[in-house]
Amino acid sequence: MTDGWNWRQPDGTPMPAYPPTSVPPSAAPPAATPGAPAPGASPWWSDALSDPWRDPRTPAAVVVTPVRPSGSIDPEPVVDPDVGPRRGLAQILLVPLITALLAGALGGALGYGFSVRNGAGGGAVLGAQGSEAPAAAQRRPDSLAGVAERLRPSVVTVRVGGRGGSSLGSGFVASADGYVITNDHVVAGGSGSATIVFSDGSTSPAKLVGQDPESDIAVLKTSRTGLSPVEFGDSDAIAVGDPVLAFGSPLSLANTVTAGIVSALDRTIQAGEPGGTTRYYAAIQTDAAVNQGNSGGPLVDGAGRVIGVNSVIKSLASDEQEAGNIGLAFAIPINQAKRLTQEIIDTGKARRTVIGAQVTNAGAGAAVGVRLSAVDRSGPAAAAGLRTGDVILKFDGRPLTEPGDLIALVRKYAPGSVVTVEYRRGSAQQNVSVTLAADVK
């Protein structure tokens, strides 16, 4: 027990006052330890020992070593956190001050970065910030944009002057040495020369190599070489619904590209000026936007291969000059156009394929078929056994309803082609193979 602030010994006698005036050798303080006051200092113990509730003989630090099983690893010693050298007030205040300064600096840096990213102080930043361009904007070579970029150098604008003024149409490069394909009605009435305008705006004069009014194909030749020719596709391999692109200069708007699909195949087209040559061909129908000035330009498939030559549009306008796109455009199949172009380059003219017969309507009440009104005795029809009065129902598997259907389909094929003809004679229906021939002009 205590008496005031004095401690008593176990026998009840008061303990000597501290610090003692003389310290016997047996009560001498322990050897100096690091951080302890030197002996003789007043007092020689630390401030912690002045605690009136503490036994001054208790060591300043208590190290507890837990009991461990035999063979285990010595754990780290657990030190009483309340015991040890005391820090001054300045040290205690300095730590939170530095922490506050560092936190303020970090917050300011983050705030500045956030404000810059969001446009604060430097004008508004509109739109989301994407990490990379979307796949649709990367323009792969097989995308529509990739096809358009690849075809553009091969597409040209054709300007032709003549007695009736000047005309403008489109065309495309068929060979690196300067041959250009266009429509006959683009160059018809011209002086035999034209100006080719390339996609980069450069121009070159061109001469008319040859033309075929009945198929609406013409070939020009420019002196420029090293050109980028188109890649030809197979117009017999396309199907309704296939994607297509139409190139040209509609309404004098050069380097125009429109997109659509194949709407129909072997659509009979009968066109021409009154009193002039009538053109027949089994056309590719498309809903790609085609207007005045697209004539002669290429129609390409999804891979960028030319499958047709844009030629005719259907319009609700009665005046041809006011005609515009209504989603009905027609192109000459490229297999036919390529064959005629090669013949014009080689011989200066194109051959016309014939069956050797004249045709008319099948008669009142007939839903399908065309009647042979006359048969050339030395022609392909007669050689196959067809006679005057026979009704042709199908030509190479395609039903016929109008006389123009047979003419257009016959001209689609090259001379020498063998086709199957289904016909009716009286009440009997039969099939026969016909070898088509070239017209002798």
From TrEMBL:
GO function term, MF aspect, one: serine-type endopeptidase activity
Domain PDZ stretches: 344-400
Full protein name: Putative serine protease PepD
Compositional bias (Low complexity): 33-43
EC category: hydrolase
Keywords: Hydrolase, Membrane, Protease, Transmembrane, Transmembrane helix
Pfam families reported in the protein's UniProt record: PDZ_2, Trypsin_2
Species whose genome carries this gene: Micromonospora polyrhachis
Transmembrane residue ranges: 92-114
Domain of life: Bacteria
Protein EC: 3.4.21.-
Gene3D superfamilies given in the database record: 2.30.42.10, 2.40.10.120
InterPro entries: Chloro_Bact_Ser_Proteases, PDZ, PDZ_sf, Peptidase_S1_PA, Peptidase_S1C
Residue numbers spanned by region Disordered: 1-57
Annotated Pro residues bias: 16-32
Organism phylogeny: Bacteria, Bacillati, Actinomycetota, Actinomycetes, Micromonosporales
Record bears the keyword Nucleus: no
GO annotation, biological process: proteolysis
